[in-house]
Amino acid sequence: MNPVSENLIQVRYFATLPWFVVPALAGVVYGIVDKQTWGWLYIAVIALGGIALWLLWLIPRQVRAIRWQETEEELLISKGRLWNTCLVIPYGRIQHVGISHGPLLRHAGLKTLTVSTASLSTNARIPGLPAELADQLRKNITDKAAEKMVEL
Hints:
alpha+beta, four-stranded antiparallel beta sheet
């Protein structure tokens, strides 16, 4: 199966950064204003640091576990290591193929491909595809879906 771009790791690191910087700065400012609260602030900083270290370890493993593959009959998307999810989406069931990219993904030259089917429970997303590959994959999937719809 094909992996997504390694640049998605940096995008996810940068996306989680505000969740650590803003509380840390707020805690420091509050600690400077109220000098008696430094005791619990040390505990909060240690907890925040522990979570940050855990995410530094977790995010690369999450990104490297995202895989996708085109076959003749279906699109395969696999995510996760501990709780592995493998979606098998027949081309004939595909209703819409979309591409999205926010400012962080755009800066990294990446896009997210989203596949919609008749099932509302299908969460078929392939994040972190290089822009050109995402556009080509969208065209391939759309063409194959149109062929399969004609056959049905």
